[in-house]
Design brief:
Chain lengths: ~325, ~240
């Protein structure tokens, strides 16, 4: 549904997007993840035909974003990072205006507006449809923007930081909406908040320094964390004795210890392929120490994100 | 065409929500009314709106930029431009829609001055042909000035800058060319006369239908609308 090949965007000497390629299948919900300035928004603006690429190609629903711009725009619903809404217009007036621009037949406009108003909670529990958009809170403005994006039931939704500036309740509400839309729509959403993309997206594309640092499902990316996993154990014993005993286990790379009352919380960084849980258990038993927690802690997505984006930024700085 | 009219309708309704539009309209009507009562509606004066048309043509050099300064620049500043052009509309539809919207509002302002014609008709016998031609000239002149203002609005995100640029361009057509026509040596004074908006407008104010004026104002309107479209398209060249 979305195909991007060697997409590059330069602003003068600055390369914002550097030869990225990816594809998104119909019905997928893909998270476009990266730190600020990574090139996420620039890529989305190219896909929405707002800016042209310097080189490369992108197609949406089979239409080229450069040469078949109108067809692309008929097939997408776009929610910018900071939605621009006319403050003097009422919500229903704005949606009516947008429905007309989106070529929705006059007969179907009222039903389309009612549908998105319910979906985006603009008409209930509180009816905001007759309020001026200049009076709306940030959360409601986001909802109007996403309602606008969905008005014409496009096959593709492109959402730039959809939860930006929202409170936790609004974020949850937005997340539920995205989950509801997934499957029937192809969604690409950008974010720099890991928790959001982990919970809503089937696949992630991590971008940093204008390049794709990694792509895959959240589980795949977690498993590919560079470096060994960790073991966490809580042992009741003397801090120094516990530390020295654990350090004595072969193939242990690093040990961190934290005292919690009489208990020692030990984090063991292992060498590749090692799993010392049975060794820890046996050690605690031999020394007569109580053991109340023992688990394998795989690398987190956050570790992965920090690592790959840091590495990618170093590479990009070197290129420039 | 349908989307152009949709955009025009939105623009017109925006004017009725804008306090600035009411202020500009009030000032324009105040200025034209003051001139009408000072120069025309007095005992012994000829029953003609010609002095009013000529005065309004000068007022428009400053009034039309105030009407047009927000058209595109405000959309750039608030981010509504991105929302607008990521819908399936062309840059031409956006520009022509905005132009039609402001033109309709301008014509509504002009229509309000019809009251003066009615007042004159009560006390005298004005020549309706002069009035009709005068208003035709005002529409053509206004269209050209509005197109210039719209173009200036595409150049910047600041309304004030757009207004100043527009006044500067219109001053060239209205004031500078007038001065060059009178004081420049030949053939520059002849060239200036060809580009002097006021020269063409005066024919309409006198009740004359001169196709040269129609061509001048129409082509000026078309030129600046074309340039406005190109300015919007230029974001793709970056």
């Amino acid at each position: 549904m979305i195909e991007v090949r060697n997409l590059t965007k330069k602003y003068g000497r600055v390369t914002a997007v550097n030869g990225i390629s990816f594809h998104v299948d119909a019905g997928d919900v893909v998270g476009f993840l990266g730190p600020n300035g990574a090139g996420k928004t620039t890529t989305l603006k190219i896909l929405t035909c707002y800016h042209p690429a310097t080189s490369g190609q992108a197609t949406i629903a089979g239409y080229d974003v450069l040469t078949q711009s109108l067809d692309v725009r008929r097939n997408i619903g776009y929610m910018p990072e900071s939605p621009g809404l006319y403050p003097e217009m009422k919500v229903h007036e704005f949606l009516k205006f947008r429905a007309a621009l989106r070529e929705i037949p006059r007969r179907g406009r009222r039903a389309a507006i009612a549908r998105v108003a319910v979906l985006c909670r603009l008409s209930e529990p509180e009816n905001m449809m007759h309020r001026n958009m200049g009076e709306l809170s940030r959360g409601y403005r986001q909802r109007v923007a996403i309602a606008d994006a969905m008005l014409h039931s496009p096959p593709v939704l492109i959402l730039d930081e959809p939860t930006s500036g929202l409170d936790p309740a609004q974020i949850r509400s937005m997340r539920e909406l995205i989950l509801k839309l997934g499957g029937t729509h192809t969604i690409i959403l950008s974010s720099h908040i890991l928790a959001e993309v982990e919970q809503t997206c089937d696949r992630l594309i991590v971008i940093a320094g204008g390049r794709i640092a990694a792509a895959g499902t959240p589980d795949e990316l977690r498993k590919s964390v560079i470096g060994p996993s960790r073991i966490v154990a809580e042992i009741k014993g003397n801090r120094e004795k516990v530390l020295n005993a654990v350090k004595g286990i072969p193939d242990v790379r690093q040990v961190q210890i934290k005292s919690i009352g009489k208990w020692q919380r030990v984090t063991i960084h292992e060498k590749d392929g090692a799993d010392h849980r049975s060794d820890i258990s046996a050690l605690a038993h031999d020394k007569g120490w109580a053991l109340r927690e023992l688990r394998d802690e795989a690398g987190s997505l956050e570790d992965f994100f920090v690592h790959v984006t840091y590495e990618q930024n170093i590479a990009s700085t070197g290129d420039q | 065409m349908r989307k152009t009219l949709i955009l025009a309708r939105r623009e017109i309704s925006g004017y009725f929500y804008s306090p600035m539009a009411y202020v500009i309209g009030a000032l324009f009507l105040l200025a034209s009314g003051a001139w009408f009562f000072h120069a025309i509606f007095r005992p012994g004066q000829p029953a003609t709106l010609r002095p009013l048309f000529e005065a309004m043509a000068w007022i428009m050099v400053f009034a039309t930029p105030l009407l047009t300064m927000h058209l595109v620049s405000e959309e750039f500043r608030t981010g509504t431009f991105e929302t607008l052009v990521t819908a399936p509309v062309t840059d031409t539809q956006v520009i022509v829609g905005k132009f039609l919207g402001v033109l309709v509002f301008y014509m509504l302002l002009l229509a309000c001055t019809g009251l003066y014609m009615w007042l004159i008709a009560i006390y005298g016998r004005p020549d309706p042909g002069v009035a009709v031609m005068g208003y035709c000239g005002m529409v053509l002149l206004g269209a050209a000035y509005l197109a210039v203002g719209l173009f200036a609005s595409t150049l910047t995100t600041h309304q004030a800058v757009a207004a100043i640029l527009s006044i500067a361009i219109l001053s060239v057509f209205a004031i500078l060319m007038q001065l060059l026509t009178l004081h420049a040596p030949g053939p520059w004074n002849q060239l200036a006369a060809r580009l002097n908006a006021m020269t063409y407008f005066k024919d309409f104010a006198r009740g004359m239908f001169d196709t040269r004026g129609v061509v001048f104002f129409s082509s000026t309107t078309a030129l600046f609308l074309f340039l406005s479209v190109k300015m919007l398209e230029s974001r793709r060249w970056k």
